[in-house]
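fold-stage: in
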Amino acid sequence: MRNGTLFFWAVLLGVAVVAADETKPYKPKPGETIVRMTIKGKGDVYIRLDTKEAPKTCENFLKLVKQRFYDGIRFHRVVPRFVVQAGDPLTKDPNVPLDDPRVGTGGPGYTIKFEPNNLKHKRGAIGMARTPDPDSAGSQFYICLEPQPQLDGKYVVFGEVVQGMEIVDRIQRGDVIEKAVVLQEAKPSKTDKPDKSERPNTRKNKP
């Protein structure tokens, strides 16, 4: 009986240690590019960008974060066991309901080119939402709640959640990105500037 009690308390202690580690701010490792996204009322999500596999996509995402583009944006799409999606600036307006047919079509005013790579849609992967046109991504992104191998190669994955997935799991439609900041940026390599071709994008961006 005593051994069983000791085992029980050891398990509880282990759970407590893991929980404590998850509440600590993520400390970026050398060479990492990390974005911290604060979800209002829920906590911080730390995203590591893969600037080697998706340099142009990461460059665009970082630019938008630095411009505070994502601050105040709502998650307009939540599909259990699939993805949570945000990045439409139309959702910043509290007078625009999420059921408005325009929601899901907004962007930064330009699009970027499709950037094929070897990154997979595993749990916690972050990718760019787009219309059926491969070169139609702009600002909308999604985070995978579970592995989605059927999307591999069809959508651009450019990073992953390294801490705070338990917060992503609790995101509901309408939750707000209070603030997104770049905690650390790896030394940039020589890359072309994002394609800023202005063209209408009236279709909803989805994975």
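fold-stage: in (second)
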Amino acid sequence: MCNSRVVLISSILLLFVFLIGCADRNDSPAAQTYPNDGNNLALAWVLKGDYQVAKSFYDLPKDVRIAILPEPPADRMAEPNEPFNSTDCIAKDYPSRRFITGGFSKDYAFVFYEHGGLGYNQPFVILKRKGGKANIILLKYFFGENGTMSLDQLKSYLKSGKPPCIVHESNEFRSL
């Protein structure tokens, strides 16, 4: 059971992280270069929409699912609108992640989901698929968004170059 002091301290810390991460986000290098980088074929692929949309985490190919939740999974992925643990106060035996949307083709896949815990966030992951394996090539964490975004809203944010507060962004993953 969570006591009120822990909840208060956690809330203050989350607010502090959110305020620091969101301050002047339109002037940050990430906001200026994301996603208008013409060399990012994977991001262009997501915006173009040349993929099969997955309505369920389990509609994604197995190589993609394993890259997101390695087997045996320490946790599972809740489906859209299913309950999940969105905070660090664990309720029942719900997973700590909930699928929002995803898509896949022969060469790429993307997954967008909610991740609960002390720092609730919405990871957006693009994976390169090759030889029966999927490796993460782009990962962006969305913080501070109230509720989840639809695929159209996500694409709109990505296309505008001004997505909701991005606190962490990484393109440094091993290639296939």
